[in-house]
Design brief:
The complex is a heterodimer of chains A (180) and B (977). Chain A is of the alpha+beta class. Helices cover 21% and strands 34% of the residues of chain A. Helices cover 22% and strands 27% of the residues of chain B. The chains are: A alpha+beta (180), B alpha+beta (977).
């Protein structure tokens, strides 16, 4: 029987440690895109709550700590870190392999992302659990604050190399400033 | 000349730098201008047009003359202001616009020819013969004019772009800005304080004022320390706000690394271009002192009075040994007071006013004017008239002041116009010019230190009050001297009276413009070039329009100003394009098989953002065509494997999914059975073809659509538009799954045999007929299999979750190679599809209809779809339209080219005779002939006819036979086999 071997999106690219930041790849496990049908929002949210303990998130928010629901667009959320229950009133799409996900953390993480991302990620505005769909240079990404100085960045899997390249260049520039 | 006991840089380390190859010592961190003056260097550049010797005029970013080039090679920076460049050990600087040397400049002959080179000279002189302008005049003039230049080499320096957000942006950190920042910072709002200088404090660093009884510079340093300790305040030095834009967005350029040797910080960006989004802003940009236009007022050694104080008080440098001062206001007298206190001789103060008292022990000449100056490379003496006569005074530095212009620039960036203030004799900002921005300090016309502090505090308090925060206004004591000034724009006398030092515009040029009826201030600017180039007339504009007002018999407010546009200071293109070189130009989308392909030395071609292998060279093959022919043979004779993951894949679900597809596709999908695939054609609203692809029905309410690689984003956007705007009644959801699945074409007579070596359960022809699809398992991994073909052969596409893509590709290729097949790339894929007459976006390029490509019957008459109505228009169903055909080189061996146009044999190859054009071509190893696809008027009726393909670009003419676009296996027997 054929045997297939897994490769992660950022294989060979991460981890990196530059100046005040560490960047490493995150495996979110099962990732499911959920988009409730017309009138199905409440039933979907209730079913999620019953099965994995998280409700369907409001725009720009995430819910949950173990299994999480990450808002990712108009009436769409990603259920990550756990199996998604049957949701008869929603479209359910497997996205476990669609994303390159990296975690950037450290004292300069915000400064590094400020080189790349137009969204306001200040801690006073963008708190832990907040998420935003935005641009990282030329790429569509989702960014979630997962700690006081830690962010999760999700980009298209095929762009993993560019994601790491852009983060690395920005981190180098920020690190160089600290030296003068 | 250093002045003992003066300046704030006593303790700085000594560094060495070179100017035009000559080595000098200076103090680390001081400006190049300060260091040159300390070394007695007065001549630093040549002027733009007449190549007149010029020196340092100012001590800030408004400097018109002292522009230098830093460095060599790709990183060479031209037109750097000596007045802002901080020196460091090893800095190499060159003067500009002079040859062979700064002292002996050949082009200064222009100055002798000045009577012939007045404003408008070029326009009047170089008019004929017309053809000479581009070929002769312009290149010669361009060579003669200009300042610094780029090297033309690739610049490897690092530049950066960044974003920042705050509640309150404070622009400028002089007394007003510092006070505003203290007021807002103490109130707890998020503040960004930006200043273009390396040190915050503004004029407090350059004057001898006291604040709260403390030395002004010390007070500023204390304020900066307090601000630096606040978490809610961000201090940005060396950062100039360059533009004000919509919705509280400001552009800014930060000089990050220009004051550091590259070798000391190789990763350090040179500059960073910021976009700062602020809820409110306070403009505390101060004011710029303006010159007076007196005869030959441009000699090295003549500078602004405020600049003399800056060099003396901040940098501890006296710009001359015997200084004279020419002014129309009280402020300038402080220059004399400060110089005398520092032990520098003041040879006289010439004040245009009659009733003015000396502020110290210096000769004062009232009702005075400077009427002549002497000294070729440096000022030697001046001639003055005054209340009781004329005299000549020996002087090596003349400090001039025609008053102050509030820095209103940013308030004009959204089309605001400043207001003329008769008391200040200056333009001041007009309220509300930039939404959310208030102006404070000298920028708003508050000329005393106390006025600046008070308005800064009040401005900030008002701004944060807007945000619902109360700030306490607590202002220290400071001088509050009145600002006394009398108008004086120009002085009569023999010789040119310079206004724009950078562009060599003088009073007579302005008068000539008025005389020639370029009376509007904007016309005058274009006619004379007043206010153009790197300083944008910061110090000269107001004086120039005062002269224009006088020449046209109008007042200054009626004359108005030219438009101030961003950027406030020059911003290098490198900073605005930061990060966009190399990999930063665009994201690279790599397939899961990318490394396997490059490992086989496959050259990559770009398809949208994707990288796809062109071909896989085998040992001994010398050309791409050899590889391509071999790979075509794999598919026709054995089995080939190709990564097709780049095609757009859109998952469509919902109770109305079928109805939705019927609406977006020209043909019908509601009738498609589950586990079956159908080819679909999508039209635009205008009835022309948008995209094509196959869509599989995975369940009753579940489809997967494929799009072409390049149009995936466009189709997704289109579907969103249709669902949200046109058919919100349909309950349907879609999601891109392009990235989720790695998908590979397995094509050729042995495709099924190959698949059966990797699938857990073998497939048969009966269970898997052409256009079937379903779930399969590979090593226990769930995948999807589609029996579809883009080559005309018995073929499949197999999809697995992307994490297994790299592994499956290697496995499939290894198995194919064991069956006398292998991997194939885009070149072979293209040949295979042309042989079968399958279209791509080369054919459906946006101007063709379903009728044109022979697919009109696919446009269902039983339902409505996007583009249906338009596709029925008479003109779009006209048989005479250019329609899809195949084209075969008549002798088989003549190469035909894509882009060639088609003509009837014997007809002239001109557009009137155009019969159509060729869209795709290839060498077909299967048919042993050059073939192509194209569009010919009424093509399907002309099969067998000969046409001539003429490619004017490549110079190729070939006779072709018009034939069916399906060259190979027209019955389709192989695909079902």
């Amino acid at each position: 029987m054929a045997k297939l071997i897994e490769t992660t999106p950022c294989a060979g690219l991460l981890p990196l440690s530059i100046g005040g930041v560490n960047i490493h790849e995150i495996n979110l496990g099962q990732v499911t895109l959920v988009a409730p049908y017309a009138g199905g929002a409440k039933a979907t949210s209730d079913a999620l709550k019953a099965a994995i303990g998280v409700t369907f998130p409001k725009p720009n928010r995430t819910n949950g700590a173990g299994p999480r629901a990450i808002w990712c667009g108009l009436d769409q959320a990603l259920i990550v870190g756990g199996a998604c229950p049957d949701l008869p009133q929603a479209a359910v799409v497997d996205h476990s392999d669609a994303w390159a996900v990296v975690r950037i953390e450290g004292a300069e993480a915000e400064a590094v992302l400020a080189r790349l991302v137009p969204a306001d990620l200040r801690a006073s505005v963008f708190k832990r659990g907040h998420t935003v769909r935005t641009m990282l240079v030329h790429m569509n990404v989702g960014i979630t604050r997962v700690g006081a100085s830690a962010f999760e960045v999700m980009a298209m899997r095929s762009m993993a190399g560019t994601l790491v390249h852009d983060l690395e260049q920005a981190a180098k520039g920020v690190a160089a400033r600290a030296l003068i | 000349m250093r002045v003992a006991g003066k300046g704030h840089t006593d303790a700085a380390e000594t560094v060495h730098f070179t100017f035009d190859g000559q080595s000098y010592a200076g103090r680390k961190g001081e400006t190049l201008a300060a260091a040159l003056l300390a070394n007695g260097v007065k001549l630093v550049g040549r002027s733009f047009k007449y190549h007149r010797p010029r020196g340092i005029v100012t001590a800030g970013s408004e400097e018109p003359n002292a522009l230098v080039t830093v460095g060599t090679g790709g990183g060479q920076d031209p037109n750097v202001r000596a007045t802002t460049l901080e020196i460091y050990d090893g800095l190499e600087v060159r003067s500009q616009n002079a040859w062979p040397s700064l002292k002996y400049d050949m082009m200064s002959v222009n100055d002798l020819a000045a009577p012939f080179l007045s404003a408008g000279f070029y326009y009047k002189t170089f008019m004929w013969p017309k053809a000479f302008w581009e070929s002769l005049y312009e290149p010669v003039i361009r060579k003669a004019a200009g300042l610094g230049a780029l090297s033309g080499d690739i610049n490897d320096d690092i530049y950066e772009k960044a974003f920042a957000h705050c509640d309150l942006l404070i622009i400028g950190a002089g007394p007003a800005g510092l006070m505003a920042a203290l007021t807002a910072g103490r109130a707890g709002v998020d503040v960004i304080l930006a200043d273009e200088d390396s040190q915050m404090g503004g004029r407090l660093l350059a004057e001898t004022f006291t604040v709260d009884g403390q030395d002004g510079a010390d007070w500023a340093a204390d304020a900066v320390s307090e601000l630096a300790a606040m978490d809610n305040v961000r201090l940005m030095t060396r950062t100039t706000i360059t533009g004000a834009y919509d919705q509280g967005t400001y552009g800014a350029i930060e000089q990050v690394g220009h004051h550091v040797a590259r070798a000391d910080a190789p990763d350090l960006p040179r500059e960073c271009f910021w976009r700062i989004v602020a809820k409110r802003a306070v403009l505390c940009a101060g004011a710029l002192e303006r010159p007076i236009a007196f005869p030959n007022n441009d000699r090295p050694g003549i500078m602004m009075a405020s600049a003399v104080r800056s060099y003396l008080n901040r940098w501890g440098v006296a710009p001359g040994k015997a200084v004279t001062i020419f002014a129309n206001n009280d402020d300038a007298h402080r220059t004399a007071v400060d110089l005398i206190a520092a032990g520098v001789k003041v040879a006289g103060v010439i004040d245009v006013r009659a009733d003015v008292q000396a502020m110290g022990d210096y000769p004062l000449y009232t009702s005075g004017a400077v009427t002549a100056t002497k000294g070729r490379l440096a000022l030697e003496s001046i001639t003055i008239t005054h209340a009781v006569g004329t005299r000549e005074i020996r002087t090596d530095c003349l400090a001039m002041s025609g008053g102050w212009n509030p820095t209103v620039h940013l308030t004009c960036h959204m089309n605001g116009r400043p207001t003329w203030d008769e008391t200040l004799l200056s333009f001041v900002p007009t309220d509300g010019s930039i939404p959310g921005l208030t102006v404070a300090g000298a920028a708003a016309g508050h000329m005393s230190t106390l006025g600046a502090l008070q308005s800064g505090a009040k401005g900030a308090a008002a701004a944060v009050a807007d945000l619902g925060v109360t700030a306490k206004v607590d202002v220290p004591t400071a001088e509050d001297d009145p600002y006394r000034i009398e108008a004086c724009w120009q002085v009569d006398g023999k010789g040119r009276k310079w206004l724009d030092f950078q562009n060599d515009v003088h009073v007579k040029d302005i008068k000539l413009a008025a005389q020639e009826n370029f009376r509007s201030v904007e016309h005058m600017k274009r006619y004379t070039t007043q206010g153009m180039a790197t300083d944008q007339g910061k110090s000269s504009n107001v004086a120039a329009l005062a002269v224009l007002a006088d020449a046209t018999g109008r007042g200054i407010p009626e004359t108005g100003t030219t438009t101030f546009r961003p950027p406030y200071v020059p911003v290098s293109i490198a900073a605005m394009g930061a990060g966009s070189q190399g990999h930063g130009f665009a994201p690279k989308r790599l397939t899961t098989s990318h490394h396997a392909s490059t490992g086989r030395s496959a050259p990559m071609i770009e398809a949208g953002l994707w990288y796809r292998p062109s071909y896989f060279p085998a040992p001994g093959e010398k050309t791409w065509l050899e590889s391509c022919n071999r790979e075509v043979g794999y598919v026709r004779d054995a089995v080939g494997v190709c990564d097709v993951s780049t095609l757009g894949k859109i998952d469509i679900q919902g109770p109305d999914a079928a109805a939705f597809l019927d609406f977006v596709y020209a043909n019908t999908f509601s009738t498609l059975r589950e586990n079956r695939v159908r080819y679909g054609l999508m039209l635009r609203e205008d009835g022309h073809v948008m995209d094509d692809g196959t869509t599989a029905r995975l369940g009753a309410d579940h489809y997967v659509m494929t799009t072409t690689t390049a149009a995936a984003g466009q189709v997704m956007t289109h579907l969103e538009w249709v669902a949200q705007a046109l058919r919100p009644d349909l309950d349907v959801r879609f999601a891109s799954v392009t990235e989720q699945w790695a998908q590979f074409a397995v094509a050729g007579p042995r495709s099924r045999a190959l698949l059966n070596t990797v699938l857990d359960d073998p497939i048969t022809g009966e269970d898997w007929p052409f256009m079937s699809c379903g779930a399969v398992s590979i090593g226990g991994i769930e995948g999807r299999l589609f029996r579809i073909s883009f080559s005309g052969e018995h073929a499949y596409e197999i999809a697995v979750p992307s994490r297994y893509g790299a592994s499956l590709f290697r496995l499939l290729v290894a198995q194919a190679e064991a069956m006398e097949g292998g991997a194939y790339g885009m070149e072979a894929l293209n040949v295979l599809r042309i042989e079968k007459g399958f279209i791509t976006h080369a054919e459906i390029h946006g101007r063709v209809t379903a009728f044109d490509i022979g697919m009109d019957r696919m446009v269902s008459r039983k339902k409505d779809c996007i583009g249906f109505a338009a596709s029925r228009r008479e003109g779009l169903l006209d048989g005479q339209r250019e329609r899809l055909v195949g084209l075969r080189s008549v002798n088989g061996t003549d190469k035909i080219t894509a882009g060639a146009h088609l003509f009837v044999e014997g007809a002239d190859a001109v557009s009137d005779n155009d019969q159509g054009y060729i869209t795709s071509v290839c060498w077909s190893p299967t048919l042993d002939s050059h073939i192509g696809l194209g569009f010919v008027k009424d093509g399907p009726s002309r099969l067998g006819e000969h046409v001539v393909a003429v490619d004017h670009v490549r110079g190729v003419t070939v006779t072709c036979e018009v034939c069916s676009p399906v060259f190979f296996d027209p019955d389709g027997g192989r695909v079902r086999g």
